[in-house]
Each structure stands twice: as structure tokens, then as C-alpha cells.
Amino acid sequence: MWSNNNNDKNSPARGFWTPPASWRSQHSPAVAKMPMSERKERVSSPSCKRDIFHVIHKVPSGDSPYVRAKHVQLIDKDPSKAVSLFWAAINAGDRVDSALKDMAVVMKQLDRADEAIEAIKSFRHLCPYDSQESIDNVLVELYKRSGRIEEEIEMLQRKLKNIEEGIAFSGKKKKTARSQGRKIQITVEQERSRILGNLAWAYLQHCDYGLAEQYYRKGLSLEPDQNKQCNLAICLMHMNRIPEAKSLLQNVKASSGSKPMDDSYAKSFERACQILTELESHLIVKQTKQDEKVHQRSVASPTTGKFEGVC
User: Fold this and answer.
1) What architecture is domain 48-132?
2) pLDDT higher than 90, residue 165
3) What's the rounded Cα separation, in Å, for the pair 199 and 216?
4) pTM > 0.85
């Protein structure tokens, strides 16, 4: 259970400060000027071994509430305890934005997405402005997990509007983002295509196949993407446009050539093919029943409308 501090929304985040890059560069030791003997000694020191441990396990160094929570999450792998420690970090004002996002991710893993949503809504005002976009990304995933599709669509529409108005990228053409723990450079077009794909998927789950098709086609107009093509094929199937869907899936398969299908879209292709097979089987059964009815009518008595031999 958490306390709601919405009455104090204008109060600054407590107890943490991140020095600017220029400050860090001025106060960081110059490794290149260090004598070789001293460098070897430092490598073999216990502190260096601890640093290597933190790099390998991707946990921050130190003994703050946030660091202890990350250690329990990633090293001890105790998600329930990690949630409690992330709460402690938030209450202590220790890296509130990171603690809030990490806690929400762990709650999602524990099927506590609704709790995580309420936590973010209650405490995001304590986080700096430049972390709000990444918090929105976490919130979208939580909406998706909890099945709150209308709220997910609303959030994605707002993100798309920010992209189109140049707010999300602050007027720049590229920005740094994280993907599977790695920092990558993404363009405005790539981010817009990603959001369009997420919107299309949300409308697909909402059974609004017409809008889903529109957003998938908009996303594909910005960059090719086999996942979007497979999901677009599913939209077309639900709208009884089977030949178009089959053609799309054939193009996806042809894009792999003789190589095994890429893992990034193999599951989407398999799911689309499964739905296609089920629909075609259903259509075959339906057509068979219709043919049987036509045959039965053809052998019925033309004068009485009754089957021959039946009183």
C-alpha cells in the first residue's frame, strides 16, 4: 500500500542530484596519463573486481536504497522483496524515476499491472521532466498487460501527437533510446512507425479492424516491417479479405529466401498462418454445408417441396 502525495505535486524530488557531464569529465581521473604499473595494481585491486562485478551483472555500485533494490531484483532474483525495496528508494528520494520504472516492471512480472499503473500515476510528479516520456512507455506496456485497451490507445494517440508536433524529439531528427538493455539511435520516422504499429495492435485487440488496417499501412509506409505485415494480414482475414492476406504472408515468407525466418517476426508469421488455416477450414466446412443444402433441395419434390419418400 502506498501513500498518495498528489496534494504536494509542486514539491521537488528529494535527496538526489545528478552532476552534469562536464562536471564528471573534469573530476574523472585521466587513465591515459597513469603509469602502467599503477594501472596493473588498480586492475587487481578489490574495488576494481567489484566494479567488474557490477558491469557483468548490470547493477549499480554503492549501498543506497535504490542500489539494494536492484541487487535484490537482478542478483537475488526476489521480485516481491525488490518491490518493497523500490518503494523504500522512492520514499527516500533515491533515484525516484528509475526506482518507479523498475518497480513497475517488476510488478508487471508479478501480474500486478494495475497496482503499478496506480503507483506511476501517484508518484510520477516526483520525477524529472526528461524521464516522463520513458515513464509513458512503461505505462503503455502496463495498460497492454492489464487489458485496459482504451487507456492504452489514448496514451499512444497522445504520444503520436507529440511526435507529429516535434515535442517528443525536441526538434531533433534522432534521439538515444534503450532496446533490450542497449542504447540505440532512433529517428523520428522509426519512432512514429513504432507508435503507429502499437496503435494498430491495440485497435486489432479492440476488434476495430478497419482502423487497425489504416495504422498498419501508415507504419509500413514509413519503414518495412514483417511483424506489421503479418498483423495486417490478420486484419484482412477478419474482414474476409483472404486473398490479400495470403498474398501478404507469401511476401513475408519470400523475404527470408532460403534462410530460416528471423526470430523477430517468426512468431507473428506462425500466428497469422494458424489463423488463416483455421479460417479456411471454417470456410470449407461452411461451403460443404451449403452444398449439402443445395443438393437436398435438388432432390426434393418440385410440387410439394417435400423430400421423396417422406410423408
Assistant:
1) Alpha Horseshoe (1.25)
2) no
3) 8
4) no
